[in-house]
Write a structure and sequence with these properties.
This protein has 426 residues and is of the alpha/beta class. The chain has 2 domains: 279 residues, Type I PLP-dependent aspartate aminotransferase-like (Major domain) (Aspartate Aminotransferase, domain 2, 3-Layer(aba) Sandwich), CATH 3.40.640.10; 130 residues, Alpha-Beta Complex (Aspartate Aminotransferase, domain 1). It has 16 helices and 12 strands. The strands form 2 sheets. A 7-stranded mixed beta sheet has the order 1-7-6-5-4-2-3, sandwiched between helices. Helix 1 runs antiparallel to helix 3 and helix 3 packs parallel to helix 11. The longest helix is centred in the C-terminal third of the chain and has 20 residues. It is globular. 51% of the residues are buried. The model has no long low-confidence stretch (mean pLDDT 95). Bound molecules: pyridoxal-5'-phosphate. Pyridoxal-5'-phosphate (PLP) binds next to helix 4 and helix 5.
């Protein structure tokens, strides 16, 4: 399997048809629980001495296929799927961190993630230093005794900054902290963070991987490359009171983290994915490769068109030669730069709102990565709750419009924007 290319893995990995009555499609196992053969069988399952299903919060045969397939396409050893991308992030962090620990994160993050790190986790004694990730040395500069993890997005949403993962991961390795990379915007069809040294990959499956805007989901994928036994992470080397004295590192070796995510993360935090959503996300994953090529092609074409519009002040798309991230994008995203574009309109906040209110092909909504084109004005919507300073930190300015370019005909997209531009009062 490992020699196969992504489009093949995305269609086949993780599904053994002999275990599903020969069904070619992955069936939906819509069951909360599983009948044990007898009490001894049940005891073995709970003791982890025999593989099998117990309860859908912990594992499920439909989710299992999705987990194996995602691990395969990202090049990880195993994965756990969750109810949303946000559940993936909070579960991953809460499984590895405790009160008193410190995170270093890129300041260019999805709004929800920024709030988790900036507001919610500090209430539990877990603090974050946000750094300008365009200089990877900043991660090294902010290191403290209690720093336990680096958190970044491979292609930041909505700043669309491409991170130099090779350098950041080198720093993480030398400082003995794991590097978590949220790869939602790039997707494994365009970039594999594990190839560049990431230890853990996060996805909001809600976006491109499902692709149709029909189901929320998330995933945590473990490269199995981080050494949890350095002394920085006693939770992995001391007997766990949460699982009758299991010493994760000794019992599970490279799989210590992802096992703890399932055994304690899903059990105690409860962010399990519905098997029905897993089924839908599997359908999306099957066509990811071909969709990402088209999303990228359409977005590059539209970005070039926007650069020549008189209503537009600036266009940010990593595939443009004018982009600050064009060099890094050539290195990390040679197959395509995904479907997000941001641009600034003359006339600022009011013009941006007018455009967002006057498209008909582009839908005004708070999502990305749909087959259908989407538009939003973050300063009045997704990033409205952030202070002006925090908006600036995450790269959101009042004139900024974010587009998520879908799979429509490119001429129809240009026409739609042209009509919306004509409504701006000058
Ligand atoms: C949407 C998104 C998330 C959160 O995912 P949900 O599935 O909406 O919870 C996290 N990271 C990035 C980059 C996202 O775009």
């Amino acid at each position: 399997m490992s020699d196969q290319k992504l489009p093949t893995k995305a269609l086949h990995a993780g599904h053994d048809t002999s275990l599903t009555q020969g069904t070619r499609a992955v069936p939906i196992y819509q069951s909360t629980s599983y009948v044990f053969n007898d009490s001894e069988h049940a005891a073995n399952l709970f003791a982890l001495s025999e593989p099998g299903y117990i309860y859908t919060r912990l594992n499920n045969p439909t989710n299992d296929v999705l987990e194996k397939r995602l691990a395969s396409v990202e090049g990880g050893i195993a994965s756990v799927v969750t109810a949303s991308g946000t559940a993936a992030i909070s579960t991953a962090l809460l499984v590895m961190l405790k009160s008193g620990d410190h995170i270093i994160a890129s300041s260019s993050l999805y709004g929800g993630t920024f709030n988790l790190l900036n507001v919610t986790l500090p209430r539990f004694g877990i603090t974050t230093t946000f750094v300008d990730s365009s200089d990877p040395e900043n991660f090294k500069k902010e290191i403290k005794e209690n720093t336990k993890v680096f958190f970044v997005e491979s292609l930041g949403n909505p700043k669309l900054d491409v991170l130099d993962l090779k350098i950041i991961s080198k720093h993480a390795k030398s400082l003995k902290v794991p590097l978590i990379v949220d790869n939602t915007v790039a997707t494994p069809a365009l970039l594999n963070p594990i190839e560049h040294g990431a230890n853990i990959v996060i996805h909001s499956l809600t976006k491109y991987i499902n692709g149709n805007g029909t189901a929320l989901g998330g995933a945590i994928i473990d490269a199995g490359t981080f050494d949890w036994s350095s002394g920085k992470f006693p939770e992995f080397t001391n007997p766990s009171p949460g699982y009758h004295g299991l010493v994760y590192h000794d019992a599970l070796g490279p799989a210590a983290f992802i096992a703890k995510v399932r055994i304690e993360g899903l059990r105690d935090l409860g962010g399990a994915l519905s098997p029905f959503n897993a089924f839908q996300i599997i359908q999306g994953l099957e066509t990811l490769d071909i969709r990402m090529k088209k999303h990228s092609e359409n977005a590059l074409c539209l970005a070039k068109w926007l650069e020549n519009r008189k209503e537009v002040n600036w266009v940010n798309y990593p595939g443009l030669s004018s982009s600050n991230f064009n060099l890094l994008s050539k290195k990390y995203l040679p197959k395509g730069q995904s479907g997000l574009i941001t641009f600034g309109v003359k006339g600022g906040f009011e013009s941006a709102k007018t455009i967002a209110d006057n498209t008909t092909v582009f839908s005004l909504l708070a999502n990305i990565g749909d087959t259908k084109s989407l538009i939003i004005h973050p300063a009045s919507t997704t990033h409205q709750q952030l202070s002006n300073e925090d908006q600036a930190l995450t790269g959101v300015t009042s004139d900024l419009i974010r587009l998520s370019i879908g799979l429509e005909d490119i001429e129809d997209l240009k026409n739609d924007l042209e009509i919306a531009f004509s409504k701006i009062k000058s």
